[in-house]
Amino acid sequence: MPPKKGLTSESAASRSLKSRTGSTHQGASSSKAAKSKGQESTKTRSVYFNHNVSGIDSPNEYESELSEPIDDLESDDNEDGSDFSATENMESEDNSESAADEPNEEELGSVKKRKLGTLNTVAKNQAASKKTTKRRKREDGDDEGEFDSREIFIPKRPPRPLHGISYEPYTIHPNTFLFLKDLRNNNEREWFWDHEAEYRAAKKDFDEFIETLSERMTQIDETVPILPLKDVLFRIYRDIRFTNDKTPYKPYFAAAYSRTGRVGHYAHYYLHLEPGQCRIGGGMWHLSESNNQGLQVMRRLIDRGGKRLKEIIEHPDMSKFFFRSPNMTPLEQFVAMNQGDALKKNPKGYPKDHKEIQLLRLRSYTIHRLLSDDDFAPKMAPIDKIVTIFRALVPFIQFLNSVIMDQEDSDANSDSQTGGIEGDDGDQ
Length: 428
Description:
The chain is α+β, with helices and mostly antiparallel strands. The protein folds into 2 domains: 12-106, no CATH class; 174-417. It is built from 16 helices and 6 strands. It has helices at residues 12-21, 24-36, 59-66, 86-94, 105-135, 174-185, 189-194, 196-220, 287-290, 292-303, 307-313, 316-321, 330-337, 357-360, 382-405, 411-417; strands spanning 43-45, 68-70, 253-257, 268-273, 278-284, 365-371. The strands form 2 sheets. It has a 4-stranded antiparallel β-sheet with strand order 3-4-5-6, covered by helices on one side. A two-stranded antiparallel sheet has the order 1-2. A hairpin with a 4-residue loop joins strand 4 and strand 5 (278-284).
């Protein structure tokens, strides 16, 4: 006579469970034996719930889905000392279920997929939350404390008072010098951001001054075109990638005019605005780096006599505005101005006792002078004074440009471009 349903027959789920875990006493004894041999033992604790969760309809599904390996579990004994496990409870419950109610593999697979999808969604949300928090970290790098997402508005400093002096496009306002002086003493980003209103006012003042000067520059040198301000002005931000000086800003304003603006290999007119160190001048800097071929042409011209260059340096206008030392000749002062990157020895191919060895060692050909801060005051008519000084530099700038443009021409073409004054200053 077949056994009654739910009393003596084992369900397929119970037989499967026993095949994996064995009886309760056998599991406990095998765990102790494995531990005595120094081997790790892994037990499975089955959890049972009486209510439906996540669409799982039978206890077997709970047992199959929610079982966890417990590595540090010593035994399944109850608090009262009886050897009782959740597995036996499940076995008794399984006897009351019919074989038809057992879940199939497709149902179990769908449950696993649902749980896995839920875990993946949670993991993605956690990763997105970490990225968002990382983007919102303060710039001071404080990753340990919690980030306060509240926005705090700190009013910036207003511009300096004008003290009755208005901004004019033909002069430099005293507040511009005061800002540059403070920037030199507080060259930090936080200070700069706090005084941004002062920077904007000072920059606008210098921009309008340079725009007015640009119109006059095209009148004294027709080779200088009218260009946008961005092609004439130097930025205040320093490139600190390859230097030990990490100050972020230049404590000055500057502009340069040439055939191609502030960039390019042509000779430049240069204006430098810095409290106590204002300068004006022109020429070509560091020819060994920017135009080595032009440097070789210049040395060949000097080797052949350098008559045109000497005539320009010794002109009375040069002595009036630039070479004003009574103890040195204009040529000696010119050499002293360009000693910064000059060679210590004679250049290759030229003897040490060359009569023009001082000029041959030069790698920059510039002329400049200092200006006082008062030279930019309204009563001094700074635009007119700067234009007058630049006008004295025009022959020097045009001579240097002729060397650059004729560096690949023949001796005859080079002589014609330099005005035909010296017949021996050409390429060899």
